[in-house]
Each structure stands twice: as structure tokens, then as C-alpha cells.
């Protein structure tokens, strides 16, 4: 190990990632075990805070568990694990009550005769109103509430000065901690009894995303390097409606806008979804995103529009204050003008294979939230099931961690770091090259030829980067790029192996569902790939 590596004292539970999943887990396990939560400041720009729509759960007397389960299975297009779906849906109401007890300011329903105290909206794929929300900024409200509780908890050490770049393994194949960089860029060992990844998905592999600071699959590859299994990487969800503004940062236009009656129009002002699917604008996201993509190609345009003018000024300002204000800041009055929108990378349905308690196949390594693949989403995540998954699996993982298993004492496997800094411009150049390639060849629609070309070019890119990664001083940017390029290759490999079109994976060379029943795509790195 290089001489400049520093080691901290061992932690009990080390959580990497401070979105909703990481924060919930920290609060739930802190009553039994000491927690260290690594939450860099960049987490404030992550996916959790930008979640607008809400949390799906069976809360209304007019709704029931079987209906939510059935809707989720339909959206997942035959690839959901029904056991995981049922577990998640059944645990949903208790998780919402837990958030309410913490003081999350969900929007009340003040209408006469309301059957539930809080307003419930409806989103694509759902057959009922079951989305509880805090206006149109649910993620921000939940994160702010959780973070306030975490900061005041005496058993939680919140660290914003460390960025994890790799995991520490031992010769027994157990996870023993993480290699991190401090604010000065020095690598530091953070050893722990149990390590939980809550690092988010891989939308950052693409040029257009719904988050200003998307993860690029770093946690997935960190786990894979220790032998963790990855599953369903080919299923990358593109949210149908991201604000189209080439000059500004990405901004999500919530699914709830369509849930409340928003209509999708092409650039000629024509509605097109009713001819695509009987559910029209409320069809699952994969169908809507592909329809928008096809309409853009048909009309030769770079966006479509989402029209809510017919809802009226009062309803728009009441239901969507954040969206209204943000669009107004960009010179767009959505009460008078349709919103220009375009599909953008939004959510990774694949990730680290886990059980219902968040455990991976690597002892002492857990994963929760978007970095994990529980089987809940199958081939396509249904709207607002993501924050639900964060809540349910973080709470389930906490129950598992309350029963700690014996700690490995095998010898650690160390990593040597170089000393020469990698040129920042080179890192940015490679990342731009990666995102351009993935957006062109491995996005909403991907063909055999496009996937083959991507596989070849990504292999070349990894070969070019390998000497630099092995010799350069560690930086967060270089580590992220290295993880991203290799995860992109695995994503292409998974897409090439699925000789059908299903859910979020659509290949016109194989346009129909395959037979027999589909199986998850599972990948483990060979020893020479780690």
C-alpha cells in the first residue's frame, strides 16, 4: 500500500450514500448499533432530492394491496419477482406512517368528504390514486426531514468530508470497509463490520438525465469488484418528460402532471398517445418514452410538449408550485404555454442483486435503493415505487443489521495507488465520449449493430484508460469514470444477451417477447475483470 494511505478506527455500520435510502437506514439502525454515514455535499443534488411525484402506497380505503401488486407486475412486463413486489407493497403503509411520525409535510386533502387525510394523486401505470406527496417536491421534503433527524441523533456520525472510491475486501471474500478520499484528495481506509451501499443508479452513463448530479453506477461496480452479482443492467428507465432546455440544467416534469390530466402533444399541437395505448398519457413509462421518441423522429423535432393549460391557473399553481416556479424562472409560463419535454435517463432498474433484507452475495455487504436490484421493478419501474422501495428495504435492512453476523479476520487485500495526477480535461473528454456513445446506441431503442459498435468502442476506451487508472493518483473523477466505463460494457453485454424486446429494453431486431418465460440477466465479474 502506498505510504500516504491513512486508516481510521473501525466503524460498526458504514453507510455510503445519503439519499432517502441511506438516511432511513441510519435512523432505523442507530438505536441498536453505531452508524457512520458518508454523505458528500454532492448528495444534495442526487436523485432523492429531485424526486417530485411522491410515494406509492395503499392508503385510500378505495385501494387495496392486490391492486397495487397487480399494477406493479403489469408495469414490470413479466420480469418482476412477485415475492419482492408483495413484500414491498404490504410494507408500504407502515413506512408512510413512520414518515408522518417524523414530521414529513405531506400535502393534506382538505376537500369535503376526503377519505384519507392527505392528498393522493395518480400516475402512469397505477389504477388508483395512491401517490402521497408533498406538493411537487416530495423528495426534497423527505430528505430535509430525515436529514434533520440524522443530524441530531447521537449514535450517527455524519461525514461529508469523505468520498468512497472502492471497497476493501479480504481473502475470505468478505467486505471489510471502503477506500475513501478526504477533502485534500488523500486516500483513507474506512474499515467496518457491515457496509451498506446507498449510492444511487447509473443514469450518469447518458447525456440527458433528470438529475443535475446523477450517479454513474459507481456503487454497482465497487460491489462487482468484490464479487457481488449484478442483475438486469439492460433495463435503464428514461423518464418521458424532462424539461427541454438545451441552455439550462436538467429538470424533471413530474409524472403527476400527466396524472392530473396533462396531455402530450407533438410540435404541431396534435395529441398522439391515444393511438399508441388505450391508457394514453397514463401508460407505463417505457411505453410513453418510446412513443415520444418515435413521434420526435416522425416529425423531425427535438422535443414534444406537455399541455396543462386546460387545468386552469389556480389548479396548476396549487398542485405544481415547484414546477410552475422553476419554469417561470426560465421564462416559461406553463399556465399559458405547453411545456417542452424530452425523455431523459432517470432510473436504473438493475443493480446489485439483493435479498429482501438488502444483503448481497458478499458477506457484510448490503445495498439499498437504486443501487440494488430487488426484483421489485422487473423490466420497468412503475412511477413512485422508487421512494417506496427506499423506505421499505432500508427498514428491512435495518432489521437484518440488528442481528450482526461474525466478523471475518482474514487478511485484507490491499490496493496500491499511483502518485501522478490524471489530467482533468482527459477525464472529462472520456466521460463525454462515453455518454455520447451510450445515448446513441444503448438508450430508449437499441439495435444489434448499435450494441455491437458500442461493445467494441467501450472495450477500446477501457483499454486506453487502464494504464492511466493503474498509475495515476486516485481522484473521485477518475474513479467514477473507471467504474462508469466498465459498467457501460456490462450494460451492453446484458442488452446483447436479451434476444427480445421487454419493458425498457426495446430492440427492433427482436421486437417481440421471447419464449419461454424471461429470466433476470445476471453477471459476475471474472477474476481477471476485477
From TrEMBL:
<dbReference type="InterPro" id="IPR037099">
    <property type="entry name" value="Fum_R/Succ_DH_flav-like_C_sf"/>
</dbReference>
<protein>
    <recommendedName>
        <fullName>L-aspartate oxidase</fullName>
        <ecNumber>1.4.3.16</ecNumber>
    </recommendedName>
</protein>
<dbReference type="InterPro" id="IPR036188">
    <property type="entry name" value="FAD/NAD-bd_sf"/>
</dbReference>
<comment type="similarity">
    <text>Belongs to the FAD-dependent oxidoreductase 2 family. NadB subfamily.</text>
</comment>
<comment type="function">
    <text>Catalyzes the oxidation of L-aspartate to iminoaspartate.</text>
</comment>
<dbReference type="InterPro" id="IPR015939">
    <property type="entry name" value="Fum_Rdtase/Succ_DH_flav-like_C"/>
</dbReference>
<dbReference type="Pfam" id="PF02910">
    <property type="entry name" value="Succ_DH_flav_C"/>
</dbReference>
<dbReference type="InterPro" id="IPR027477">
    <property type="entry name" value="Succ_DH/fumarate_Rdtase_cat_sf"/>
</dbReference>
<feature type="domain" description="FAD-dependent oxidoreductase 2 FAD-binding">
    <location>
        <begin position="12"/>
        <end position="387"/>
    </location>
</feature>
<dbReference type="InterPro" id="IPR003953">
    <property type="entry name" value="FAD-dep_OxRdtase_2_FAD-bd"/>
</dbReference>
<keyword id="KW-0285">Flavoprotein</keyword>
<dbReference type="InterPro" id="IPR005288">
    <property type="entry name" value="NadB"/>
</dbReference>
<keyword id="KW-0560">Oxidoreductase</keyword>
<feature type="region of interest" description="Disordered">
    <location>
        <begin position="496"/>
        <end position="530"/>
    </location>
</feature>
<dbReference type="GO" id="GO:0008734">
    <property type="term" value="F:L-aspartate oxidase activity"/>
</dbReference>
<keyword id="KW-0662">Pyridine nucleotide biosynthesis</keyword>
<dbReference type="GO" id="GO:0034628">
    <property type="term" value="P:'de novo' NAD+ biosynthetic process from L-aspartate"/>
</dbReference>
<dbReference type="GO" id="GO:0005737">
    <property type="term" value="C:cytoplasm"/>
</dbReference>
<comment type="pathway">
    <text>Cofactor biosynthesis; NAD(+) biosynthesis; iminoaspartate from L-aspartate (oxidase route): step 1/1.</text>
</comment>
<feature type="compositionally biased region" description="Basic and acidic residues">
    <location>
        <begin position="497"/>
        <end position="513"/>
    </location>
</feature>
<keyword id="KW-0274">FAD</keyword>
<feature type="domain" description="Fumarate reductase/succinate dehydrogenase flavoprotein-like C-terminal">
    <location>
        <begin position="432"/>
        <end position="512"/>
    </location>
</feature>
<dbReference type="Pfam" id="PF00890">
    <property type="entry name" value="FAD_binding_2"/>
</dbReference>
Amino acid at each position: 500500500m502506498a505510504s500516504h494511505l491513512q486508516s481510521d478506527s473501525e466503524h460498526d455500520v458504514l453507510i455510503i450514500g445519503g439519499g432517502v435510502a441511506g438516511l432511513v437506514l441510519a435512523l432505523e439502525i442507530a438505536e441498536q448499533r453505531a452508524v457512520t454515514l458518508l454523505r458528500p455535499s454532492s448528495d444534495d443534488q442526487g436523485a432523492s432530492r429531485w424526486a417530485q411525484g411522491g410515494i406509492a402506497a395503499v392508503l385510500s380505503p378505495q385501494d387495496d394491496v392486490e391492486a397495487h401488486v397487480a399494477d406493479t407486475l403489469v408495469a414490470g412486463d413479466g420480469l418482476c419477482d412477485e415475492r419482492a413486489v408483495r413484500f414491498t407493497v404490504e410494507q408500504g403503509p407502515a413506512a408512510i406512517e413512520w414518515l408522518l411520525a417524523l414530521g414529513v409535510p405531506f400535502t393534506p386533502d382538505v376537500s369535503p368528504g376526503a377519505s384519507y387525510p392527505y392528498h393522493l394523486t395518480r400516475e402512469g401505470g397505477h389504477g388508483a390514486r395512491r401517490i402521497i406527496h408533498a406538493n411537487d417536491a416530495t423528495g426534497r421534503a423527505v430528505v430535509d426531514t430525515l436529514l434533520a433527524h440524522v443530524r441530531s441523533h447521537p449514535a450517527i456520525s455524519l461525514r461529508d468530508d469523505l468520498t468512497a472510491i472502492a471497497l476493501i475486501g479480504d481473502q475470505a471474500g468478505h467486505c471489510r470497509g471502503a477506500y475513501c478520499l478526504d477533502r485534500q484528495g488523500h486516500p483513507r481506509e474506512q474499515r467496518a463490520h457491515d457496509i451498506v451501499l446507498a449510492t444511487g443508479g447509473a443514469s450518469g452513463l447518458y447525456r440527458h438525465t433528470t438529475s443535475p448530479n446523477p450517479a454513474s453506477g459507481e456503487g454497482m461496480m465497487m460491489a462487482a469488484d468484490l464479487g457481488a452479482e449484478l442483475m438486469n443492467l439492460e433495463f435503464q428507465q428514461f423518464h418521458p418528460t424532462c424539461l427541454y432546455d438545451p441552455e439550462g440544467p436538467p429538470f424533471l416534469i413530474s409524472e403527476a402532471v400527466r396524472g392530473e390530466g396533462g396531455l402530450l402533444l407533438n410540435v404541431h399541437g396534435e395529441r398522439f398517445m391515444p393511438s399508441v395505448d388505450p391508457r394514453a398519457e397514463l401508460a407505463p413509462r417505457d411505453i410513453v418514452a418510446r412513443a415520444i421518441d418515435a413521434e420526435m423522429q416522425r416529425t423531425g423535432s427535438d422535443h414534444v410538449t406537455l399541455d396543462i393549460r386546460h387545468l386552469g391557473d389556480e389548479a396548476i399553481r396549487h398542485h405544481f408550485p415547484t414546477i410552475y416556479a422553476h419554469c417561470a424562472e426560465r421564462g416559461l409560463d406553463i399556465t399559458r404555454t405547453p411545456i417542452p419535454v424530452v425523455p431523459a435517463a432517470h432510473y436504473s432498474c438493475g443493480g446489485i442483486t439483493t435479498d429482501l433484507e438488502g444483503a448481497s452475495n458478499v458477506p457484510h455487504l448490503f445495498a439499498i435503493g437504486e443501487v440494488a436490484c430487488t426484483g421489485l421493478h422487473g423490466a420497468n419501474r412503475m412511477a413512485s415505487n422508487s421512494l417506496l422501495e427506499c423506505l421499505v428495504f432500508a427498514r428491512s435492512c435495518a432489521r437484518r443489521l440488528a442481528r450482526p453476523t461474525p466478523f471475518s479476520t482474514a487478511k485484507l487485500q490491499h490496493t496500491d495507488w499511483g502518485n501522478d495526477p490524471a489530467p482533468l480535461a482527459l477525464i472529462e473528454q472520456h466521460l463525454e465520449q462515453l455518454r455520447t456513445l451510450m445515448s446513441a446506441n444503448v438508450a430508449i431503442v437499441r439495435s444489434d449493430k448499435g450494441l455491437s459498435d458500442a461493445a467494441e468502442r467501450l472495450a477500446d476506451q477501457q483499454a486506453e484508460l487502464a494504464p492511466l487508472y493503474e498509475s495515476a493518483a486516485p481522484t473521485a473523477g477518475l474513479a467514477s469514470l473507471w467504474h462508469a466505463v466498465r459498467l457501460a460494457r456490462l450494460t451492453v453485454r446484458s442488452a446483447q444477451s436479451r434476444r427480445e424486446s421487454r419493458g425498457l429494453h426495446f430492440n427492433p431486431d427482436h421486437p417481440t417477447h421471447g419464449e419461454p418465460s424471461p429470466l433476470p440477466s445476471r453477471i459476475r465479474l471474472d477474476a481477471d475483470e476485477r
